[in-house]
Design goal:
Number of strands of chain B: 14
Oligomer: heterodimer
Number of helices of chain A: 14
Strand content of chain A: under 5%
Shape of chain B: globular
Radius of gyration of chain A: 21 Å
Helix content of chain B: 25-40%
Number of helices of chain B: 9
Helix content of chain A: 55-70%
Distance between the termini of chain B: 31 Å
Chain lengths: 299, 288
């Protein structure tokens, strides 16, 4: 290697190190700010209330099992989406774009930092489901919610991972929207539209034929598995001869499917700052993961 | 011997049909260079070029001995640059400390402890040590200008680009700004734009006057003042055909240009020269 090439390689390495350090420093700031933001806190409160209502108060249709497998985390995920979107559009909304443009850090680094900062809400989501699942795990016979409806019991760790994965998907989508559609109203419209679309997807079937779960499990539209959460009420219990949770696929595949979607969203958000081969590969890998896990989880 | 830090040669910048810069040229070395000019003269556009926020359409620009059109050079310039935009914008829910800390991260100061020490240093430098943990939305306009100045001082930049740093400040604060800037300029290059000719007279080693996107004067404040020597008069009455005359506090009339009858020649100020340069007088009276 020539002296010039060595110098260039050294400079590139130093720049990369500096970029990584800046990403981490920014992510720490953004992560903590996200957790302190009103959108996230309101979402967190709603999620906890949903879990409590489904458990302690034996509230209506939704079981604690279902809640902890993802549904309860949707408000927290929505709060994360709003918070990430607001953070992503902050320079444009507050008029600091010009000031930041004179700094050596590129906007792409801020996008990376926004993605890394999602570790904070995802960790909180993990803590929420872990703490809420503890009573279920300790007292395995405990029954929550409407006990006439399946399933009951405790979700597996992989099923519990679906909640934090939903938060990851929503957060990544928030950043993507911030990069492509920096219009404030989007922050508040997006979670509502998502709830409407995905809620419809998740509960897209009515009562099963003959009202029988064992028959019904085969009639569940495949589409419902492509939503972030799945309506577990429609799946049979062990008493009826089926396993808990993903009766038609191994637990963990749906979480992987969600991670695949988040990877694609993240890569597209980063592509906003310019095309790169590595990002194209990451996006393709995300698509492969989402499609692969998405197909394998299907009934 | 002074080294040139900023070299501007015939730079041009258009925004649609508007020709914001039509080829101004000047150099700046360590010390304070003041940009004077009316609204729309191109001062802010020029400062944005110096801050590497905009790229010129044509012309030559070198900053700190580097070419900002080169990606690597531009990055290096930004590492050694402090910039205070005309309207810096603030995250109103951030505290002053949090805001400056955020900018410090963008300036690649990633060691948390060292960064926080530096943030405290610059905030104390602009006398905001006592209020650094207050939210920006609770700070006065003058305090916010100082927050903006503080962030530009992070990491001791070699080139400081300040767009109207004293705008909207009361006289006491302006004096404090002058004091601070004159200290800072001892070892670095400061390029600032202003409408305040007093600031230029009090602070700058060099003054560049711009009008309609071009440089109309480039020299020292003393040289600028000399342009109006022998052309400023005090008289008891307002001259009927005077385009620029005003009644002073003492009740007499100050005229720039042709002497009215019975007028007394007086020492010109930098403002008198500035007005002459900008052609505020009849064409026949314009400075050469």
């Amino acid at each position: 290697m020539s002296a010039v090439a060595e110098r260039q390689a050294g400079a590139t390495g130093r720049a990369r190190d500096r970029g990584a350090s800046t990403v981490w420093s920014l992510a720490r700031v953004e992560g903590w700010r996200l957790l302190r933001g009103p959108a996230f806190l309101i979402g967190l409160v709603f999620s906890v209330v949903l879990i409590i209502l489904s458990g302690e108060l034996a509230w209506g249709w939704f079981t604690a099992y279902e809640m902890l497998s993802g549904l309860a985390l949707v408000p927290l995920a929505s709060g994360t989406l709003i918070g990430v979107y607001l953070a992503g559009t902050r320079p444009a909304r507050h008029g600091t774009t010009e000031l930041y443009a004179a700094a050596p850090t590129r906007v792409e680094v801020s996008t990376w930092a926004g993605l890394v900062s999602l570790a904070w809400p995802v960790a909180v989501a993990g803590v929420v489901v872990a703490v809420a699942a503890l009573p279920l795990a300790v007292v395995r016979d405990l029954e929550f919610g409407d006990t006439t409806l399946p399933p009951r019991g405790v979700p597996s760790v992989l099923e519990l991972a679906q909640g934090p994965a939903i938060v990851l998907v929503y957060g990544t989508l928030g950043l993507l929207l911030a990069r492509f559609v920096p219009v404030l109203a989007v922050a508040f419209i997006a979670p509502i539209v998502l709830l409407w679309l995905l809620g419809g997807l998740a509960g897209s079937t009515g009562a099963g034929p003959n009202g029988s779960y064992d028959v019904y499990v085969y009639s569940v539209p495949r589409l419902r598995w492509l939503g972030p959460w799945v309506d577990y009420r429609l799946f049979p219990t062990e008493e009826l001869g089926f396993a808990h949770g993903f009766a038609t696929g191994r637990a963990g595949l749906h979480a992987l499917y969600l991670v695949g979607i988040a990877s694609v969203l993240a890569a597209v958000a980063l592509l906003r700052h310019g095309r790169r081969r590595s990002l194209g590969i990451a996006a393709a890998a995300g698509v492969a993961l989402a499609v692969g896990a998405g197909l394998l989880q299907l009934p | 011997m002074t080294s040139t830090t900023v070299e501007v040669r015939g730079v041009q910048k258009r925004f649609g049909r508007t020709n914001a810069l039509a080829g101004p040229s000047f150099d700046a070395a360590p010390g304070i260079t003041g940009l004077l000019g009316p609204n729309g003269a191109g001062k802010t556009t020029l400062l944005r070029l110096l801050a590497t926020v905009l790229a010129p359409d044509a012309g030559r620009l070198r900053l700190l001995g580097r070419d900002p059109s080169d990606t690597g050079d531009r990055l290096e310039i930004r590492r050694r640059l402090g910039y205070m935009p005309q309207e810096p914008g603030f995250h109103r829910n951030f505290t002053a400390f949090e805001f400056v800390d955020y900018v410090a991260i963008l300036k690649e100061m990633t060691d948390r402890r060292a960064r926080h020490d530096e943030v405290r240093r610059v905030l104390e430098l602009v006398d905001l040590g006592d209020v650094m943990h207050r939210r920006i939305k609770t700070l006065s306009g003058g305090m916010r200008r100082r927050v903006a100045l503080a962030q530009s001082l992070l990491a001791g930049p070699e080139l400081l680009v300040l767009d109207e740093p004293t705008a909207g400040l009361d006289p006491e604060l302006r004096l404090r700004f002058r004091e601070l800037l004159s200290e800072l300029a001892q070892r670095r290059t400061v390029v600032l734009s202003t409408h305040q000719t007093e600031d230029v007279a009090a602070l700058c080693q060099k003054v560049v006057v711009m009008d309609k996107g071009v440089t109309v004067f480039d020299g020292t404040p003393r040289e600028l003042i000399e342009l109006a020597r022998g052309r400023v008069w005090l008289a008891d009455d307002r001259a009927g055909d005077a385009r620029l005359s005003w009644r002073t506090g003492e009740g007499r009339h100050r005229h720039i240009g042709v002497a009215p009858a019975g007028a007394e020649l007086v020492e010109p100020t930098l403002e008198d020269s500035y007005l002459l340069l900008l052609g505020k007088l009849p064409a026949g009276e314009r400075a050469a």
